[in-house]
Amino acid sequence: MTNCAPGDTLVAKGDKFSLHQCPKNELEKKDMERFPMPRQYLSNPGMDHWKKAKWVMRFLQRTKDYMLTYCRSSHLEIVGYSDSDFAGCLDNRRSTLGYIFMLVGGAVSWKSVKQTLIASSTMEAEFITCYKTSNHGIWLRNFVTQL
C-alpha cells in the first residue's frame, strides 16, 4: 500500500461482482500472483475482484490521513439512515441492507451486509432493513441514555 498511487473513489456506481468472474486462464492467475497481500483476503479472486482490491488500496492511500471527528454537545440525538437493494447479489439474488447512525454529526455505528432471507419483493427487502435498523437504533438510544 505504501507504494500505490492515490485513487479518487472507492466504488463506482453500477459495480457488480459474481462468482463467474474467476480467472479464466493461466495469464490471469499469474497476473494476480504478483500482488500476494490482497489475494489472501479474497475468497473468490476473479480479475474484476482483483482490480477492485487494487482500487481499494489506492483509495486507502489517498484517505489515510482522514479521521472521524466529534464535537462536544449536551444534546445527544442519534440520527439513523438505512437502505436496501432488492436481489442485488448476482449469485444468490439476496438483498443487501445497510444503515448508519450518527451522533453529533459523526458516524458512531454502521453496517452493510447481505440479508439472510431472500426477499420476494422490494417492499419485503425494505421491511427487513427497517426492522433490523430499528432494533439497532433502539439499542443505541438506550446505550446513550445510560451514559
UniProtKB/TrEMBL annotation:
It comes from the Eukaryota. PANTHER family: GAG-POL-RELATED RETROTRANSPOSON, INTEGRASE CATALYTIC DOMAIN-CONTAINING PROTEIN. This is Retrovirus-related Pol polyprotein from transposon TNT 1-94. The lineage of its organism: Eukaryota, Viridiplantae, Streptophyta, Embryophyta, Tracheophyta.
